[in-house]
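Consider the tokenized backbone below.
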């Protein structure tokens, strides 16, 4: 009896993440409870979206962030936009790379706008891009020796949640924060839904899509990259960091003015 009990619990632990049945397209996957407080903060940051499902998907993903992080980024002035290029929407001048079908999301740090293409809108991408805004709103912790060291270590030893994290410390932070916020039990349903809806495939086949996301959850970040895990936890728990000066999100006119007045604008 005892052996059976402990064997059962062992099996239960070892098979997560899992999904009983594939998650059909259109369904919601809970990353964290969507409290009314979080939902109104997130919706206030969405400046445009083509439909309610897109708004819901942004809310679903960002609810995984602690309330303090949402408040900080909202106060920093970051705004979120979802475009439907398939329906002929124009690409905004401040997010020029977004129309590329392989671009999963973009953040213009100077215009302080996060952008997504509706057909690539996944929680993985939303969590990742928002982490860039959080980084900026906290005075770029990704530039500190701690984060740069963790990036160098992870990138050179392959101990990162996804290859893209090797790019630079800022991408390493965004990837690690995003993985941290995906609960283990949500990973498989999110991958299955992404495949069912053909979102964020960027030319990948099914096996490559699984492989790309295989470590993209909380427990796997902890196992694959303990240092990154520790840094993300500290970052999300740190409410002592003073707020940096707000950078209100620009519109196209403001961005065009900015381009004229600055010889080399930076967009990422
Ligand atoms: Zn990024």
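A designed sequence for it:
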């Amino acid at each position: 009896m005892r052996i059976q009990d402990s064997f059962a619990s062992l099996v239960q632990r070892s098979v997560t993440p899992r999904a009983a049945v594939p998650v059909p397209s259109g369904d919601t996957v809970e990353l964290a409870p969507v409290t009314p407080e979080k939902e109104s903060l997130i919706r206030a940051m969405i400046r445009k979206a083509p439909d309610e499902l897109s708004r819901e998907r942004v809310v679903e993903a960002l609810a995984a962030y602690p309330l303090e992080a949402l408040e900080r980024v909202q106060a920093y002035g970051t705004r979120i936009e979802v475009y439907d290029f398939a329906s002929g929407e124009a690409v905004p001048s401040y997010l020029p790379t977004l129309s590329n079908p392989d671009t999963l999301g973009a953040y213009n740090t100077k215009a302080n706008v996060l952008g997504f293409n509706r057909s690539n809108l996944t929680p993985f991408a939303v969590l990742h891009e928002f982490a860039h805004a959080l980084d900026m709103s906290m005075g770029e912790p990704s530039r500190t020796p701690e984060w740069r060291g963790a990036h160098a270590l992870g990138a050179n030893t392959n101990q990162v949640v996804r290859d893209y994290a090797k790019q630079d410390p800022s991408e390493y932070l965004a990837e690690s924060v995003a993985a941290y916020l995906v609960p283990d039990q949500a990973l498989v349903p999110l991958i299955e839904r992404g495949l069912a809806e053909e979102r964020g495939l960027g030319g990948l086949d099914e096996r490559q899509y699984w492989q790309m996301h295989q470590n993209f959850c909380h427990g796997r970040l902890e196992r694959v990259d303990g240092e990154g895990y520790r840094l993300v936890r500290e970052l999300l728990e740190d409410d002592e960091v003073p707020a940096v000066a707000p950078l209100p999100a620009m519109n196209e006119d403001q961005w065009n003015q900015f381009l004229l007045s600055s010889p080399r604008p930076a967009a990422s």
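Residues 30-239 form a domain with the Collagenase (Catalytic Domain) fold (CATH 3.40.390).
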